[in-house]
Amino acid sequence: MTCFLPPMPPQPGPPTALPAERPKPSRRRQYAQPAQTPPSRVATILRVVAERYGIPQRAMLSRSKLPKYQRPRLVAMALCRRCTRINSEVVGEAFGRHRTTVLNAERTVARRLSIDPTFAAELGALEQTIRAGGPV
């Protein structure tokens, strides 16, 4: 047997406001934008790597996944970690990426170093140039 309750009488006073509608969360990932002024050592590394690969620095900071931009970006992130004492979070902020992307770049470069001697020589030359303060 079902019990039905009579409807509640209306309450005197102002009408109750409906709760504010929350904006729907975006399905797209939200990434940080590149830092406006990256730390000076990171800026030096960006300049050296961009000159070596013949691409603009802005391209390395872009969202592009084209190999001609992605590979130098990974190299620059890995060199930032190897040549400075900057943690992965700060490097990620400088590149507009998450810190785990920087860690992945380190692993990718280390893996490639172990199998490609030409890449190892190239990275060594870049590292020496960076430690010397970049090209004049």
Automatic annotation (TrEMBL):
Q: Sorted alphabetically, which Pfam families does this protein's record hold?
A: Bac_DnaA_C
Superkingdom classification of source: Bacteria
Q: Which SMART domains match?
A: Bac_DnaA_C
Under the heading InterPro entries, the entry gives: DnaA_C (IPR013159), Trp_repressor/repl_initiator (IPR010921)
GO biological process terms, alphabetically, are: DNA replication initiation; regulation of DNA replication
| Pro residues: compositionally biased ranges | 1-17
Any one GO MF annotation of this record: ATP binding
Q: Which residues form the Chromosomal replication initiator DnaA C-terminal domain?
A: 41-109
Region: Disordered, residue numbers: 1-39
Q: What is this protein called?
A: Chromosomal replication initiator DnaA domain
Q: Which organism is it from?
A: Xanthobacter autotrophicus (strain ATCC BAA-1158 / Py2)
